[in-house]
Amino acid sequence: MKSTILVVIVAIIVIIIAASAFIYTGMQPKTGTVSNDTMVTPPPQTASDTYAVNFAYEQTTIPAGQNQWINVTIDGPGSYPQADLQGFLNVNLPNGTLYQTFSFTTDSNGQAEFPFTIAQNATPGTYNVSLVIEELGEITENVTSSFVVTN
């Protein structure tokens, strides 16, 4: 009886091994040639300086102590929104000193928003805003705009 059970167990093991080898062989990649016209190659990633940048301000002239909101829209070639662009926005005082800086990543509509409060004792004058876009570790755009702070 023990020998019959042993023979059955060995037979089952042999069947499992054979079936595994068959399944594994069927899953192997096929060999042969592949024509170039069936291959999909992603486009190369290169830095581009062909962006259209639009600044929108909640107020272009704003009293000190108020909340300012800057919205930036970035379009690329063909006027398509540029999602996932990264960079930073700097707001400079009238004398050129850095007042605020923000990092950003554009959303699916190519937009980034920058809300902040103008200090109550802020220096009146023209505040220059520069938007810097970085691609592949390089600065590819530096676009400027401005708004005015009053007392």
What is the topological layout?
Layout: H1 2-26, E1 52-57, E2 61-63, E3 67-75, E4 86-92, E5 98-105, E6 111-117, E7 125-135, E8 138-150
Parallel strand pairs: 2-8
Antiparallel strand pairs: 1-3, 3-6, 4-5, 4-7, 7-8
User: How much of the residues is beta strand, in percent?
Assistant: 35-45%
Overall geometric form:
elongated
pLDDT below 50 for ≥5 consecutive residues: which ranges?
21-48
CATH architecture of the domain at 52-150: Sandwich
**Strand arrangement in the largest pleated sheet:** 2-8-7-4-5
Q: What's the name of the CATH homologous superfamily of the domain at 52-150?
A: Macroglobulin (MG2) domain
Give the class-level CATH name of the domain at 52-150: Mainly Beta
Report the order of strands and helices.
Answer: HEEEEEEEE
Indicate the CATH topology of the domain at 52-150: Immunoglobulin-like
Number of distinct beta strands: 8
The first-to-last residue Cα distance is 103 Å
Query: What's the number of helices?
Result: 1
Mean pLDDT: 79
Structure classification: alpha+beta
Radius of gyration: 31 Å
Report the sheet with the most strands, covering strand number, pairing sense and barrel closure: 5 strands, mixed
| Residues in helix, % | 10-25%
